[in-house]
Fold this protein.
Amino acid sequence: MAKKPTDGVDYHDKMIIAHAVFACIATLFTAPAAILIGRYFRGRPWWFKAHLWLQSVTASCIIIVFAVGIVAVLSGASHIVQLTGPKADAHHDLGLAILILFLLQYLLGIAAHYTHSAGPAGAQKGAAFPTLSTPKHALRHLHVFCGVAMTALLYAGVKTGMDEWDTVSDMGTRVPSGIVVVYWLFFGIEVAAYLFGWVMEPLRAKKTQRAAASLDGGSEEKVAVEA
Protein backbone atom coordinates (compact mmCIF):
# COMPACT_ATOMS: atom_id res chain seq x y z
CA MET A 1 0.00 0.00 0.00
CA ALA A 2 1.39 3.39 -0.98
CA LYS A 3 2.20 5.78 1.82
CA LYS A 4 0.81 9.26 2.04
CA PRO A 5 3.25 12.10 1.26
CA THR A 6 2.96 13.23 4.88
CA ASP A 7 4.38 9.92 6.06
CA GLY A 8 7.83 10.85 4.76
CA VAL A 9 10.14 8.84 2.53
CA ASP A 10 10.68 5.30 3.81
CA TYR A 11 13.98 3.45 4.00
CA HIS A 12 13.55 1.54 0.73
CA ASP A 13 12.80 4.65 -1.27
CA LYS A 14 15.68 6.54 0.33
CA MET A 15 18.04 3.77 -0.75
CA ILE A 16 16.64 3.81 -4.27
CA ILE A 17 17.04 7.59 -4.48
CA ALA A 18 20.69 7.28 -3.42
CA HIS A 19 21.05 4.43 -5.92
CA ALA A 20 19.66 6.67 -8.67
CA VAL A 21 21.82 9.68 -7.80
CA PHE A 22 25.09 7.75 -8.00
CA ALA A 23 23.91 5.97 -11.14
CA CYS A 24 23.23 9.30 -12.83
CA ILE A 25 26.62 10.69 -11.80
CA ALA A 26 28.33 7.73 -13.47
CA THR A 27 26.04 7.52 -16.49
CA LEU A 28 25.50 11.15 -17.40
CA PHE A 29 28.75 12.74 -16.26
CA THR A 30 31.90 10.78 -15.44
CA ALA A 31 31.70 7.84 -17.88
CA PRO A 32 30.79 9.94 -20.96
CA ALA A 33 33.36 12.58 -20.02
CA ALA A 34 36.07 9.92 -19.80
CA ILE A 35 35.12 8.54 -23.22
CA LEU A 36 34.96 11.97 -24.86
CA ILE A 37 38.36 12.93 -23.44
CA GLY A 38 39.76 9.77 -25.01
CA ARG A 39 37.98 10.59 -28.26
CA TYR A 40 39.04 14.24 -28.62
CA PHE A 41 42.10 14.88 -26.45
CA ARG A 42 44.39 11.87 -26.79
CA GLY A 43 47.13 14.14 -28.11
CA ARG A 44 47.23 16.17 -24.91
CA PRO A 45 49.71 15.18 -22.18
CA TRP A 46 47.05 15.33 -19.48
CA TRP A 47 44.42 13.18 -21.18
CA PHE A 48 45.25 9.85 -19.54
CA LYS A 49 45.29 11.22 -15.99
CA ALA A 50 41.93 12.90 -16.56
CA HIS A 51 40.53 9.76 -18.20
CA LEU A 52 41.76 7.55 -15.37
CA TRP A 53 40.45 9.89 -12.68
CA LEU A 54 37.00 10.04 -14.26
CA GLN A 55 36.85 6.29 -14.71
CA SER A 56 37.95 5.80 -11.11
CA VAL A 57 35.05 7.98 -9.97
CA THR A 58 32.78 5.99 -12.28
CA ALA A 59 34.01 2.73 -10.77
CA SER A 60 33.35 4.01 -7.25
CA CYS A 61 29.86 5.14 -8.22
CA ILE A 62 29.02 1.81 -9.86
CA ILE A 63 30.14 -0.15 -6.81
CA ILE A 64 28.04 2.12 -4.57
CA VAL A 65 25.08 1.83 -6.94
CA PHE A 66 25.24 -1.96 -6.88
CA ALA A 67 25.63 -2.15 -3.09
CA VAL A 68 22.85 0.33 -2.34
CA GLY A 69 20.57 -1.40 -4.84
CA ILE A 70 21.07 -4.73 -3.08
CA VAL A 71 20.37 -3.11 0.29
CA ALA A 72 17.15 -1.61 -1.07
CA VAL A 73 15.94 -4.92 -2.49
CA LEU A 74 16.73 -6.73 0.76
CA SER A 75 15.03 -4.06 2.87
CA GLY A 76 11.74 -5.94 3.01
CA ALA A 77 10.07 -9.18 2.00
CA SER A 78 7.87 -7.33 -0.48
CA HIS A 79 10.95 -6.14 -2.38
CA ILE A 80 12.70 -9.49 -2.78
CA VAL A 81 10.31 -10.28 -5.62
CA GLN A 82 12.10 -7.62 -7.68
CA LEU A 83 14.86 -10.15 -8.31
CA THR A 84 13.02 -13.35 -9.18
CA GLY A 85 9.36 -12.71 -8.44
CA PRO A 86 6.50 -10.99 -10.27
CA LYS A 87 8.27 -7.62 -10.18
CA ALA A 88 11.50 -8.93 -11.71
CA ASP A 89 12.74 -7.02 -14.75
CA ALA A 90 15.84 -6.40 -16.84
CA HIS A 91 17.10 -3.61 -14.58
CA HIS A 92 18.75 -5.95 -12.08
CA ASP A 93 20.34 -8.08 -14.78
CA LEU A 94 21.72 -4.93 -16.37
CA GLY A 95 23.12 -3.84 -13.03
CA LEU A 96 25.09 -7.04 -12.59
CA ALA A 97 26.30 -6.94 -16.20
CA ILE A 98 27.43 -3.33 -15.78
CA LEU A 99 29.37 -4.12 -12.60
CA ILE A 100 31.20 -7.05 -14.19
CA LEU A 101 31.86 -5.35 -17.52
CA PHE A 102 33.04 -2.10 -15.98
CA LEU A 103 35.50 -3.75 -13.61
CA LEU A 104 36.83 -5.74 -16.58
CA GLN A 105 37.02 -2.62 -18.71
CA TYR A 106 38.75 -0.66 -15.94
CA LEU A 107 41.45 -3.32 -15.54
CA LEU A 108 41.83 -3.61 -19.32
CA GLY A 109 42.39 0.13 -19.53
CA ILE A 110 45.19 0.06 -16.98
CA ALA A 111 46.80 -2.94 -18.67
CA ALA A 112 46.40 -1.42 -22.14
CA HIS A 113 48.16 1.76 -21.02
CA TYR A 114 51.37 -0.22 -20.66
CA THR A 115 51.16 -1.74 -24.15
CA HIS A 116 52.66 -0.25 -27.30
CA SER A 117 50.82 2.11 -29.61
CA ALA A 118 52.39 3.75 -32.63
CA GLY A 119 50.33 6.88 -32.04
CA PRO A 120 48.77 9.07 -34.74
CA ALA A 121 52.01 9.14 -36.71
CA GLY A 122 51.85 5.37 -37.09
CA ALA A 123 48.52 5.32 -38.89
CA GLN A 124 48.43 3.76 -42.34
CA LYS A 125 49.04 6.33 -45.04
CA GLY A 126 45.78 7.46 -46.59
CA ALA A 127 43.65 5.79 -43.91
CA ALA A 128 40.30 7.48 -43.33
CA PHE A 129 40.20 6.44 -39.68
CA PRO A 130 43.67 6.73 -38.10
CA THR A 131 42.24 5.61 -34.76
CA LEU A 132 41.48 2.18 -36.21
CA SER A 133 44.44 1.85 -38.56
CA THR A 134 47.15 2.82 -36.08
CA PRO A 135 49.10 -0.29 -35.01
CA LYS A 136 48.29 -1.00 -31.37
CA HIS A 137 47.89 -3.88 -28.97
CA ALA A 138 44.59 -5.77 -29.07
CA LEU A 139 43.99 -4.81 -25.43
CA ARG A 140 43.56 -1.20 -26.49
CA HIS A 141 40.85 -2.07 -29.00
CA LEU A 142 39.15 -4.35 -26.47
CA HIS A 143 39.25 -1.63 -23.82
CA VAL A 144 37.55 0.87 -26.13
CA PHE A 145 34.89 -1.65 -27.18
CA CYS A 146 34.14 -2.59 -23.57
CA GLY A 147 34.01 1.07 -22.58
CA VAL A 148 31.44 1.94 -25.23
CA ALA A 149 29.40 -1.20 -24.48
CA MET A 150 29.50 -0.50 -20.75
CA THR A 151 28.32 3.08 -21.24
CA ALA A 152 25.46 1.87 -23.43
CA LEU A 153 24.46 -0.51 -20.64
CA LEU A 154 24.64 2.36 -18.15
CA TYR A 155 22.20 4.39 -20.23
CA ALA A 156 19.90 1.37 -20.47
CA GLY A 157 20.24 0.78 -16.74
CA VAL A 158 19.16 4.31 -15.86
CA LYS A 159 16.20 4.14 -18.25
CA THR A 160 14.98 0.81 -16.92
CA GLY A 161 15.56 2.08 -13.39
CA MET A 162 13.25 5.03 -14.01
CA ASP A 163 10.64 2.66 -15.40
CA GLU A 164 11.02 0.38 -12.38
CA TRP A 165 10.60 3.19 -9.86
CA ASP A 166 7.01 3.66 -11.02
CA THR A 167 6.18 0.11 -9.91
CA VAL A 168 8.31 -0.44 -6.79
CA SER A 169 8.24 2.89 -4.95
CA ASP A 170 6.73 2.46 -1.49
CA MET A 171 5.52 6.04 -1.74
CA GLY A 172 3.59 5.23 -4.88
CA THR A 173 5.25 8.13 -6.69
CA ARG A 174 6.37 8.32 -10.30
CA VAL A 175 9.54 9.70 -11.86
CA PRO A 176 8.92 13.38 -12.70
CA SER A 177 8.67 14.00 -16.43
CA GLY A 178 11.30 16.73 -16.12
CA ILE A 179 13.88 14.20 -14.97
CA VAL A 180 13.05 11.97 -17.93
CA VAL A 181 13.48 14.91 -20.30
CA VAL A 182 16.84 15.82 -18.77
CA TYR A 183 17.97 12.21 -19.11
CA TRP A 184 17.14 12.10 -22.83
CA LEU A 185 18.76 15.51 -23.33
CA PHE A 186 22.04 14.35 -21.81
CA PHE A 187 21.82 11.07 -23.71
CA GLY A 188 21.30 12.81 -27.04
CA ILE A 189 24.07 15.36 -26.55
CA GLU A 190 26.63 12.83 -25.35
CA VAL A 191 25.94 10.25 -28.06
CA ALA A 192 25.98 12.98 -30.71
CA ALA A 193 29.29 14.32 -29.39
CA TYR A 194 30.86 10.86 -29.57
CA LEU A 195 29.57 10.12 -33.07
CA PHE A 196 30.62 13.59 -34.23
CA GLY A 197 34.20 12.68 -33.34
CA TRP A 198 34.04 9.69 -35.68
CA VAL A 199 32.44 11.77 -38.44
CA MET A 200 35.15 14.40 -38.17
CA GLU A 201 38.04 11.92 -38.10
CA PRO A 202 38.17 11.20 -41.86
CA LEU A 203 37.79 14.91 -42.58
CA ARG A 204 40.72 15.74 -40.33
CA ALA A 205 42.70 12.86 -41.86
CA LYS A 206 42.16 14.25 -45.38
CA LYS A 207 43.19 17.71 -44.24
CA THR A 208 46.35 16.31 -42.68
CA GLN A 209 47.13 14.30 -45.81
CA ARG A 210 46.71 17.35 -48.05
CA ALA A 211 48.96 19.39 -45.79
CA ALA A 212 51.60 16.66 -45.83
CA ALA A 213 51.36 16.33 -49.62
CA SER A 214 51.72 20.08 -50.03
CA LEU A 215 54.75 20.08 -47.76
CA ASP A 216 56.34 17.20 -49.66
CA GLY A 217 55.66 18.94 -52.96
CA GLY A 218 57.28 22.12 -51.73
CA SER A 219 60.35 20.22 -50.54
CA GLU A 220 60.75 18.44 -53.89
CA GLU A 221 60.42 21.73 -55.77
CA LYS A 222 63.07 23.32 -53.55
CA VAL A 223 65.46 20.42 -54.17
CA ALA A 224 64.90 20.69 -57.93
CA VAL A 225 65.66 24.42 -57.90
CA GLU A 226 68.82 23.92 -55.88
CA ALA A 227 69.94 21.19 -58.27
Observations:
- The helical segments are 11-40, 47-73, 77-84, 90-113, 130-133, 138-168, 177-226.
